[in-house]
Amino acid sequence: MSPRRERAGSQVELAHVIPRYTPAAIAAIFNDDSRLRRWLEVELLAAEGWAAAGRIPAASAQALRDGARIDPARIQELEAEQGHDVAAFVQAVQETVGDEGRFVHLGLTSSDVVDTTLATQLRDAAAQIHQDAALLLTALEDQAVRHRLTVMPGRTHGVHAEPITLGIKLANHWDEVRRSRERLAAAALEVAVGRVSGPVGTHTSVPPQVEEHVCAGLGLSVAPTATQVLARDRHAAFVTAAAILGATLERLATTVRLLQQTEIGELEEPFAQRQKGSSAMPHKHNPILCERVCGMARVLRGYAVTAMENVALWHERDISHSSAERIVLPDTCALLDYMLRLCTRLVGQVRVNPDKMLRDVEMHGRITCSPRVLGALIAAGWSREAAYREVQGLAERARAGEAGFETLARAALEATLGTQALDECFDVGAFLDGIDGIYRRLGLAVVVAQPGGSGPAAERPQLAVEAGIGGGGAAT
Predict the structure, then answer these.
(1) Which end of the chain is more exposed for a tag (fewer CB within 10 A), N or C?
(2) Which element (helix H / strand E) includes 464?
(3) Long-range CB contacts (< 8 A, 24+ apart) of 459-462?
(4) Phi, psi of 13 (to 5 degrees)
(5) How far apart are CA 247 and CA 254, in angstroms?
(6) Coil, strand, or helix at residue 194?
(7) What is the pLDDT of residues 114-142, one digit of tens each?
């Protein structure tokens, strides 16, 4: 993956490109110790497969299981001499078991060991990512339910549209992360296959039953066919699915970034008591967590391009993919898992300003209620063009500061529409009536606490708005 360093005791360990962005659980899967132990397990299972096929003594396979050892310093020494990591590994292992060493790597090629090991690493990393994505989903669900009726402006093109709630905004992110998690899980199944089929994949040097024994022992499926390597479309699909999940997290982070802008101030990412936002400006609270997620998403997209470039290998194999994969595959898993953990913190501790959200909905005298005024005029018999121009003119006057939009509309249209119809036009809660149906379709809870604390009750959004129920302060 990345440059390697030697620790005390001559143990070679993975040195990630950016260690601070590598969760320990992912590092433990891809470090050199893990890789070598997995290589050895492939070799031992292959020997057992040979013994089951009657090709080597069962006692020899057991002797290998009992006596084979890994000496990282010796492997490093041999690799420096030979320029081949697997050959160095094989020789070093053979040296630890004496005469039985002749049965190590019997009939295998390097890719039998490397590709099958890689499949176990990607499978295990995907399982960790799947688990951490579940934590993010829980955080999103909790906040979506908590803020189901926290009214705020909807925005299209960055401009106020119709009122929505913070809850429905987060519910959309929840659904998107859920889909990406499922997509990555499917890609992980596709890449969790092994191959132990010899130099060009035709089983001339190793029979299928040995391959089946190895894969069964590792909990992998058997690739139906392979060349000297597993086809890299599997790996490209995995990295692409990871990049899509990364883009999903980027959209979530961008949502918070935009709503944290000083002029908006509806959300803010967590900021610790002793944290410094700027070395020069003490007043600053910068959205650094969100920006970090956005930057990492760009790296993942670049990795997806590299993974797709690795698909078109020459004939039965070249190694143009190998050097790139040492970086791309482990770092994809590390970055994505780090991003998930970061976003879980971001969502769980986001600071919510419901009062500012409600003030923004009220901006220019509830100007975002213009679609309902338009609809009321059309229902009263106006042509759409005439109604649109009338409402647009009132909105322009409100935006210019003449008076609030509601005040202007009531003055101009009271005789045409009547008080009750205009009251309905400016009922902000009416914009939220469809939210409960969306929540039920998603499987999210629609029960909230009653204002008096008398227990849960399903409430109409309008009533919640009128009672001032909007989430009530910062989320914990």
Answers:
(1) C
(2) helix 461-466
(3) 459/149, 460/429, 460/433, 461/149, 461/165, 461/429, 461/432, 461/433, 461/435, 461/436, 462/427, 462/428, 462/429, 462/430, 462/432, 462/433
(4) -130, 155
(5) 10
(6) strand
(7) 999 999 999 999 999 999 999 999 999 99
Please say if 157 is a catalytic residue. yes
Estimate to the nearest angstrom the gap between the alpha carbon of 462 and the chain centroid: 35
Which is the CATH superfamily of the domain at 110-358? Fumarase/aspartase (Central domain) (1.20.200.10)
Question: 3-state secondary structure string, 110-174?
Answer: HHHHHHHHHHHHHHHHHHHHHHHHHHHHHHHHHHHHHCCCCEEEEEECCEEEEEEEHHHHHHHHH
Cα 366 to Cα 428: distance, rounded to the nearest angstrom? 8
Phi then psi dihedrals of residue 70, to 5 deg: -110, 130
Mutual orientation of helices 370-379 and 384-399 as an angle, nearest 10°? 150
| Rounded Cα gap, residues 185 and 188, in angstroms | 5
Residues 312-341 have pLDDT tens digits of: 999 998 988 988 899 999 999 999 999 999
10, 221, 278, 383: the catalytic one is 278
- Residue ranges, comma separated, of all CATH 1.20.200.10 domains in the chain are 110-358
Nearest to 249, CA basis, from 291, 286, 292, 297: 297
Under CATH, which number does the domain 4-103 receive? 1.10.275.10
Beta bridge partners of 153: 163
Cβ atoms of residues 67 and 7 within 8 Å: no
Annotated catalytic residue, options 157, 283, 323, 454: 157
Indicate where the chain has its CATH 1.10.275.10 domain(s).
4-103
